[in-house]
Write a structure and sequence with these properties.
binds flavin-adenine dinucleotide, FAD/NAD(P)-binding domain, five-stranded parallel β-sheet, alpha/beta, 9 helices, single chain
């Protein structure tokens, strides 16, 4: 029996596993011929893009529900290292240290927010990078709502004015209100760049600025966090902001386990993969999602996003089985790119193209965002093998729907 190991059950790993099971079925093989095994530190698939939202009740989907119906085994474990020369993975599972061998590997360990060694950040900082972290923030806000009023209680500092930081800040008025923190609350977005959304582009920036302003989100631009303490943050400008809530959203980096592989990586630490999701010069190793970078349209490399992680996973899953079976593999090509940024009660921003041209804003764009976050990126949850396999076919979806009148 051959063994395919998929490391990670996020957007890339989940879809790689289902895609591999689909292809295994298609070639008439069974789990007695090809074992597909997923390892993740969590027993759930996190709809990670929703970790900034107020309601977290539907963002952790049990793997049992998704992988058992299609004969994919899955185990809990913390991956410690990978030895591609000997095709061995070292992990820590409930019984202690284990070694797992593979015939084919799909690396899908994603990315993590970078937490620099700023004094006090590790102890006092929050983030929304994982479901666990999002729950911790939620518990903290609920506890604050029950505590005595103070300026620090009703002030939230969000660090990093990129996609995640903007979404977190824009959602915060609603989250504070739901936690019972009303009145003179302050939400402050801090970034070392001179503008918000510095990487998002000139077309989108005025829309973001207008939304943040209408939500009363303050900014501190061109400054860094010097230190964090229980009672507040010190900025590099010398300002001290009293706050009990500092949310770190600055900078993503590919899983450090990508460093276990020889060969080229980009500035985000991502392994360079070909259109078949193969890691160069490493037979039998595929990578997908935030841990990998692939040129999708002959020009642009993938962006760390579920928009790319899901199709990369589907194609990696299909190709890993095709490779094992000696069948032709399928290249991934995607000719469109969109961004949909949630802007809280103000609505959202929907852009198309690599220049991020603004297409819709406000409630029209919010409808697109909600379609994506609540439907489009969800796997079928009915336990139907046919539905799961249909959703994992190695094809590229059409762009998401737009609603309302296009913005002029
Ligand atoms: C708050 C937030 C909002 C976002 N919004 C958007 C958005 O609007 N649109 C968009 O396209 N993208 C968005 N993203 C980015 C998107 O979530 C990622 O690009 C996507 O999750 C990448 O998928 P992945 O499968 O590569 O990684 P992940 O989804 O992170 O999955 C990696 C998996 O590997 C597991 N893992 C990692 N290391 C180990 C280890 N050592 N041992 C065991 N298991 C391990 C993790 O538990 C996880 O299940 C957002 C991200 C965040 C945090």
């Amino acid at each position: 029996m051959a063994r395919i190991v998929v490391l990670g059950a996020g957007f890339a790993g989940l879809w790689a596993a289902i895609g591999a099971a689909r292809k295994r079925d298609e070639i008439g093989a069974s789990d007695r011929d090809i074992e597909i095994r997923v390892i993740d530190r969590n027993p759930y698939h996190n709809i990670r893009v929703r970790n900034y939202e107020t309601d977290l009740s539907e963002v952790a989907l049990p793997l049992v529900q998704l992988l058992d119906p299609i004969g994919v085994t899955h185990g809990l474990g913390e991956i410690e290292s990978i030895d591609p020369a000997h095709r061995k993975i070292s992990l820590v599972a409930s019984g202690g240290e284990e070694t797992l061998s593979y015939d084919r590997l799909v690396l899908a360990l994603g990315s993590e927010v970078m937490r620099p060694a700023i004094p006090g950040l590790a102890v006092h900082g929050f983030d929304v990078d994982t479901y666990t972290a999002a729950l911790r923030l939620e518990d903290h806000l609920v506890a604050l709502g029950r505590s005595a009023p103070s300026p620090g209680r009703s002030t939230v500092v969000v660090v990093g004015a990129g996609f995640t930081g903007i979404e977190v800040a824009a959602e915060m008025p609603d989250r504070l209100a739901r936690a019972g923190i009303t009145g003179s609350r302050r939400i402050i977005l801090v970034d070392p760049n001179p503008t918000v959304g510095a990487t998002i582009g000139a077309h989108a920036r005025p829309v973001i600025e207008s939304a943040l302003s209408s939500l009363d989100v303050e900014t501190r631009l061109g400054v860094r966090i010097a230190s964090v303490e229980a009672a507040g943050v010190h900025l590099s400008s010398g300002e001290f902001i009293p706050t009990q809530t500092v949310i770190w959203c600055a900078g993503m980096r590919a899983s450090r386990l990508a460093e276990n592989f020889p060969g080229a990586r980009d500035r985000l630490g991502r392994l360079l993969v070909d259109p078949f999701m193969r890691v160069a010069d490493l037979p039998g190793v595929f990578a997908a999602g935030d841990v990998a970078s692939s040129v999708v349209d002959g020009l642009h490399p993938t962006v760390m996003s579920c928009q790319f992680a899901r199709p990369m996973g589907r194609f990696a899953g299909h190709n890993v089985v095709a490779d094992l079976a000696g069948e032709p593999m399928l290249p991934l090509r995607i000719d469109w790119y969109v961004t949909v940024l949630d802007l809280g009660d103000w609505g959202a921003l929907y852009t198309e193209g690599w220049d991020r041209e603004v297409k819709t804003t406000g409630q029209a764009a919010k409808a697109t965002k909600q379609t994506i976050n609540r439907k489009r990126i969800y796997p079928p949850l009915n336990g139907s093998k046919d539905d799961l396999f249909a959703a994992a076919a190695p094809t590229v979806q059409a762009p998401p729907p737009t609603y309302g009148a296009p913005r002029r």
